[in-house]
Specification:
The protein is mostly helical. It is built from 17 helices and 4 strands. It folds into 2 domains: about 5-185, no CATH class; about 235-380, Serine Threonine Protein Phosphatase 5, Tetratricopeptide repeat (Alpha Horseshoe). α14 runs antiparallel to α16 and α16 runs antiparallel to α17 (about 370-380). Keywords: Signal.
């Protein structure tokens, strides 16, 4: 038996065992990973087209075409490599697809392939890329690798440990020459992976510290952390968290009504992902001077922009609609709060969090019967 035949048989067995475990065919496996990554990016741009190809010629595992229609083309044979990683097969696949998505979402307006292989066989492509300096190419590929790896993590995959071995396997399978030619070498790409891993670990710690600061009531620190995160990786979650921290800080300056003091659960705003959390209610005697009012209003208006940005990145992001309704209510615009909830699908309008803010809005519009009916249904 020849070595090539043995290699094919082993690859075939690994390939089919993996599919038996996941229950997905090739197209489904690639599509599921692609869709999870698109969701992780949480970008308002329409996702690029996904094209799955299968040819005998081994050119590149994946390629992004900016024109005429943004398209990411993935070689189905890439799964032969990725599925060798067993339980980490989807993590391996996510590295390649996330890299190409990073080119698209960061407006790299030319086509580029993960392996830098197609450039040799496509004159038009090659001529465009020759116009870029090595530093420009390194910057673009570093950005694509950094952000691709980050959003692979955001989608729930574990890319770092498999990256070096995956890169070796791709160079071997696609018979790539590891030469400079103005592009990152394999060694440089492995260094990029280590840099990305270190940076992402730092940002993840910043995220955890932001959550902890928010939970402790240190809203200035939480705001600072989420602003820093957004400067690197703007996402719907970061904008939402930023808006929540600003809103919670603003609530420190809001006078407490007699009704809210008597029944805090009814008037507790359903902010954040955890709708079971409750705002700590201060003393009934709190008053609001002009300076505090201006600070509260400024925080709420900035939070409004944060939630609107989160929604612009994903117009199905229900939590930010509810958070935005809370802000409208706190700004004294109860009708806008009701209108924002009414923009949600019927099922989401009936969620506990949405109903809670509706009850507060109705109460402040002196529509007490509606408010009391909701509170009764919610057992508040």
């Amino acid at each position: 038996m020849t070595k090539s035949l043995l290699y094919f048989i082993l690859s075939f067995l690994v390939f089919n065992i993996s599919f038996a475990q996941t229950g997905l065919n090739e197209k489904e496996q690639i599509t599921v990973v692609f869709n999870k990554l698109v969701a992780a990016y949480g970008n308002s741009k329409t996702a690029p087209n996904l094209k799955i190809t299968s040819t005998k010629e081994r050119r590149t595992p994946a390629i992004y075409f900016a024109t005429p229609v943004p398209t990411i083309s993935v070689d189905k044979n890439l799964l032969i490599i990725c599925n060798r990683f067993g339980a980490d097969s989807d993590s391996a696949l996510s590295i390649i697809i996330a890299h190409e998505l990073a080119h698209y979402y960061n407006d790299h307006t030319f086509c580029t392939d993960f392996a830098f292989a197609v450039r040799k066989k496509d004159n038009e492509f090659s001529n465009k890329l020759k116009a870029l300096s090595k530093n420009e190419k390194l910057a673009i590929e570093t950005e694509a690798d950094h952000k691709g790896l980050f959003y692979s993590c955001m989608a729930g995959y574990k890319p770092f440990d498999v990256y070096p071995e995956l890169l070796d396997a791709i160079y071997n399978y696609y018979e790539l020459v590891d030469s400079d030619n103005g592009y990152p070498t394999k060694k440089e790409r492995k260094a990029i992976n280590l840099q990305a891993q270190q940076k992402i670990n730092e940002l993840y710690m910043l995220f955890l510290e932001g959550i902890a600061a928010n939970n402790k009531g240190d809203y200035d620190q939480a705001i600072s952390n989420f602003e820093t995160l957004n400067s690197y990786f703007p996402s719907r979650e970061n904008y939402n968290n930023l808006g929540v921290s600003r809103t919670l800080k603003a609530l420190k300056y809001k006078p407490l009504s007699r009704e809210a003091y008597k029944n805090p659960e009814r008037f507790s705003y359903p902010l954040g992902i955890d709708t079971n959390s409750r705002l700590k209610q201060p003393s009934q005697e709190r008053s609001l001077d002009e300076a505090s009012y201006q600070l509260m209003e400024d925080l709420l208006k900035r939070a409004q922009k944060d939630f609107e940005k989160a929604i612009s990145l994903d117009d199905t992001y229900t939590q930010s609609y509810i958070n935005l309704a809370c802000v409208f209510e706190l700004l004294g615009n109860s009708m806008a709060a009701i209108g924002k909830i009414n923009e949600l699908p019927k099922e989401q309008q009936n969620s506990r969090a949405a109903q809670r803010i509706l009850a507060i809005a109705y109460y402040n519009l002196e529509m007490e019967e509606k408010a009391l009916e909701i509170w009764k249904n919610l057992k508040l």
